[in-house]
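Please describe our next protein:
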Amino acid sequence: MEENSTSSPVREKLTGLLVRAAFLFEPLAPTAISYYLGRKLNELKQKGLISDYKTRTCRLGKFHYRIDVDLDVNSKQAIYMFNDLLPNQLNGVRRWFNV
């Protein structure tokens, strides 16, 4: 029983520390988002699924971001994206949008 009573304050302190760390590193998130998007879009470019891309991530507020993605595609690439890639990507974000 004593072990349970000491682990609770330790757990609370650890949780508080992790929350503070998340707020400390949150302003760096646009850089991390841009890096991740760049890697994924570069993979699509190497496969020939897109011709070129540009990304821009802006921090609007705490945990709120605007992500601009500009893709250069030809007609065959656009058809592939709308028919194959886009529906698969939207399945993961349905809880945020009313899709």
